[in-house]
Request: fold
Amino acid sequence: MAILNVRDQDFNQVVLDPNKLVIVDFYADWCGPCRMLSPVLNELDEEFGDEITIAKVNVDLNTKTARSYQVMSIPTLKFFKHGKEVGTFTGFKSKDQLHNLVKTILKR
Reply:
């Protein structure tokens, strides 16, 4: 599945999907660690396919959503399962770290 770019207007519709694990990457184009994380998320998307959805929210363009989820630094990854937030991580994470985390959350 492709990584989705999500805006304030469609965040709830895309992210609060009760049937999937959704990983939301709150990022900005100018953020170095965000750019480093992008290929890692692409690899996870390929690896897990239809088991997960990855959504990206540009905090500079979607301030309402970033504020409502209290995103204070980037990159911030928020994990949603069954429409509920089940985890938050800030900063760069390696593919192995994220892979293990996704596996753990999928088992819950």
